[in-house]
Amino acid sequence: MRHPIRLVAAAVLATAIAVPAQLWAGPEKVEFPADYKKWTSFGVLDRYDGKAVRFLYANPAAMNSVPGNAANGLVLVLEVRKAKLGADGNPERGADGRFIATDEVTAVNVQEKRAGWGTEYPEAKRNGEWEYASFQPSGQRNAGANIDGCFSCHKPWVGQDFTFIFDVFVRDGKPK
Fold first, then answer.
1. Residue 121: what pLDDT?
2. What is the total count of domains within the chain?
3. Which CATH number is 124's domain given?
4. Which site among 55, 58, 92, 166 is 20 to 30 Å from 72 CA-CA?
5. Domain extent at residue 91
6. Beta-strand relationship, 130-135 and 101-113
């Protein structure tokens, strides 16, 4: 006599093995891009509320992208560094008026696009085929990162394939 619980467990296991991992949503799909600093730099942004400077990088696949339709396999990195603070606790500015960044990296945030990604999300959240993840500078995941915040912040940028300045960079060829 076959045991019903064993049959159910076997069926669940067989289904899990048969369904490709790419069909599950979440930041676990995204891997830490250890070589991102060798990629193309496409911008630097001051972050007033976080007293930080964000450095933006794009992988080689990005350079083949078409504005408004980023290539499959594209990876964008937002490296967050602390801003140098003055005696008053506010970020110091350089001669160009921009924040002065320290060498202290506090997070490496990644936006990655792959065919079929995102289909698991409801339309109200989905950002095309993009997933997001946050890492510590060591490459370990930031377990407490608010990935939902990435989705909501990028959602309005549908006309630029859910990216902010990257679309402008691809269209114009160089950061300003």
1. 94
2. 1
3. 3.50.70.20
4. 55
5. 26-172
6. antiparallel
Q: Extract the tokens encoding 11.
A: 């069926």
| Residue range 130-162, pLDDT digits in tens | 999 999 999 999 988 999 999 999 999 888 888
156: in domain: yes
Residue 1 resides in a domain: no
pLDDT tens by residue, 40-81: 998 899 999 999 999 999 998 877 776 666 668 899 999 999
Q: pTM for this one?
A: 0.80
Alpha carbon 170 to chain centroid, angstroms: 17
Helix (H), strand (E), coil (C) string for the chain: CCCHHHHHHHHHHHHHHHCCHHHCCCHHHCCCCCCHHHCEEEEEEEECCCCEEEEEEECHHHHHCECCECCCCCEEEEEEEEECECCCCCECECCCCCECEEEEEEEEEEEEECCCCCCCCCCCCCCCCEEEEEECCCCCECCCCCHHHHHHHHHHHHHHCCCCCHHHHHHHCCCC
Measured distance CA(131)–CA(34) in Å, rounded: 18
- Look at residue 65 and tell me if it is in a domain: yes
